[in-house]
């Protein structure tokens, strides 16, 4: 549904959902995971005077499931790519093809002092109102964004825990050792506190716009109950590292295991699988075969 179709009468909930979710129809993945490339490109096209700067926190190699690579490759964006993992960072520095328009930083972004994104970006010529901030750090995304006060990106794309029900307001504890993720309701609450409005979402990410531009998108109702169906929500909150917030039948989608009424993973395996060392990878295979 394009923007000019918003003027039609809204007679029922389904019509309201369709009118409010029109931006999701632009979903298209060039490098992103769930269509974020198309949604972001359309949203940027509706903003005035873009400055063609973007920042990606949790960049991996800069291309894999990237929310910014399409902008750099096809829209001539400049980018700041921040990756804490040494192995992924080496790959980023070695293989990224647009080094003339990219700034690489090896750092785990936190929420205070010199580890905050404000402090990190202040060392580089990034505009205060750069176009897109993408945060994907598998857990502490809420705290990383909350600590951004100096900068006011026009769009914020941020990962949430997709197993959380819409009604659940859950924030992962601010702890670098944890990989649980926060619920979409908590992210939306934070966004409103910071002056942002929800304009679209995918299976794993919420897209917010600076509230000053929200009217440009003609979204009649951006409440979570209208913007998001809960067909894939489980009866428990399954955290990125396998920790369970509530009991009940569910599926640990990141670890590929079903469970019942207990913490499934031993403490040694409660970490995000992408960050496993070799021993943890072997232990996971053994644990899965036994259970």
Description:
- This protein is α/β, with parallel strands linked by helices and about 290 residues long.
- The protein is built from nine helices and nine strands.
- It is globular, with a radius of gyration of 19 Å.
Report how far apart the termini are: 46 Å
Reported for the largest beta sheet, the result is: 7 strands, mixed
Low-confidence residue ranges: 1-6
The appropriate CATH architecture of the largest domain is 3-Layer(aba) Sandwich
> Might you state the CATH topology name of the largest domain?
Rossmann fold
Helical content class: 25-40%
Strand order of the largest sheet: 3-2-1-4-5-7-6
**Topology pattern, helix = H, strand = E:** HHEHEHEHEHEHEEHEEH
Number of helices: 9
CATH class of the largest domain: Alpha Beta
| Average of the residue pLDDT scores | 89
* Global outline: globular
Structural class: alpha/beta
**CATH superfamily label of the largest domain:** Vaccinia Virus protein VP39
Tell me the Rg in angstroms: 19 Å
In short:
With 291 residues, the chain is an alpha/beta fold. 25% of the residues lie in helices and 14% in strands.
């Amino acid at each position: 549904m394009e923007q000019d179709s918003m003027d039609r009468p809204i007679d029922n909930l389904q019509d309201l959902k369709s009118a409010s979710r029109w931006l999701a129809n632009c979903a298209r993945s060039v490098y992103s995971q769930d269509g974020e490339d198309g949604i972001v490109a359309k949203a940027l096209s509706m903003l005035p005077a873009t400055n063609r700067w973007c920042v990606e926190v949790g960049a991996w190699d800069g291309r894999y499931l990237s929310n910014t690579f399409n902008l750099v490759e096809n829209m001539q964006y400049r980018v700041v790519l921040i990756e804490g993992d040494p192995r992924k960072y080496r790959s980023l520095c070695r293989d990224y093809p647009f080094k003339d328009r990219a700034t690489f930083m090896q750092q785990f972004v936190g929420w205070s002092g010199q580890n905050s994104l404000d402090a990190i970006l202040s060392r580089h010529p990034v505009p205060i109102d750069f176009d897109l901030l993408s945060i994907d750090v598998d857990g502490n995304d809420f705290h990383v964004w909350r600590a951004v006060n100096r900068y006011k990106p026009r769009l914020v794309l941020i990962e949430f825990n997709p197993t959380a029900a819409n009604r659940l307001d859950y924030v992962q504890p601010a702890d670098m050792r944890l990989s649980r993720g926060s619920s979409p309701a908590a992210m939306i609450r934070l966004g409103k506190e910071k002056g942002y409005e929800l304009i679209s979402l995918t299976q794993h990410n919420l897209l917010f716009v600076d509230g000053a531009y929200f009217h440009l998108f003609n979204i009649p109702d951006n409440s979570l109950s209208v913007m998001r169906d809960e067909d894939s929500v489980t009866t428990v909150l399954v955290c990125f590292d396998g920790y369970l917030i509530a009991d009940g039948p569910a599926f640990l989608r990141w670890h590929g295991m079903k469970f019942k009424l207990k913490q499934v993973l031993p403490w040694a395996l409660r970490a995000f699988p992408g960050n496993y060392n070799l021993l943890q990878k072997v232990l996971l295979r053994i644990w899965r075969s036994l259970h």
